[in-house]
């Protein structure tokens, strides 16, 4: 089901996807009317993907899903962060975040995916379209999908994690480009807005990916035999993958700070040189300004006022004094 079709279905009754996994890697779609009367076989798994904000989805979850009020409240709450909860011995609640790849959206504005899982049923809820869900549906349609509830949840987490890598790579390339141009051209001014944006985006990603990494490691140690089992190493690998991304995001943040600090230092150095030059010019002309001001007060008795060559003499004296200042500044190493 493509994004437009999913959007249309979710608008009508809140059910974006309903698939019955056959335990062989394939699945068939079931209608809204079939859901409540399905008799699941031991190898089959029912996957229901709902629009969390739709009234029909909320009503079905509370009245027909069979979930406890505690589980329903957690799945429908407004604000969530990545975490894992076990309401009962054979049930699991998993809250994950995925990169927002919808048109016109900011990728770091991550989409929340709430998952309820038990041995033969998975219920997932989202508010916005999630590309990982579409890719998983395509794999099931091609007969190459997961075969169980735990495999379905693991594959969803895997696809969501894969979407992080290109985003982190783009941020790293942006910082690399600015860093290289600074090294090649001392006069290059880095794009301050891009650098601040990269730092903000990396911080936004870290906010949700750090606890999600901890969840994956926790899942690898979970004692739910029906859920984790032989897939513990896969959950551990997902945790390691997110760890690499988080380390790269931390490095991006530090490098952005170094780029901005380097630019601030260069600006401060240029400003110091300009101010030093102004100080030299001011110090050079201050005594001359004093003499010209003194000779221009227009009162009687100024020496040389009656002498025909007085102006030339004063100019020569000023020039000589200026040369003396220049020699003195050089000797005191005030001028390079």
Automatic annotation (TrEMBL):
Pfam families registered for this protein in UniProt: CorA
Gene Ontology molecular function terms on file: cobalt ion binding; cobalt ion transmembrane transporter activity; magnesium ion binding; magnesium ion transmembrane transporter activity
Predominant cellular place of this UniProt entry's protein: membrane
Membrane-topology annotation of the record: Multi-pass membrane protein
Cited InterPro entries: CorA_cytoplasmic_dom, CorA_TM1_TM2, MgTranspt_CorA/ZnTranspt_ZntB
Keywords of this entry: Cell inner membrane, Cell membrane, Ion transport, Membrane, Transmembrane, Transmembrane helix, Transport, Zinc
Subcellular location field: Cell membrane
Gene Ontology CC, one term: plasma membrane
Residues annotated as transmembrane: 274-297, 309-329
Protein name: Zinc transporter
Family that this chain belongs to: Belongs to the CorA metal ion transporter (MIT) (TC 1.A.35) family.
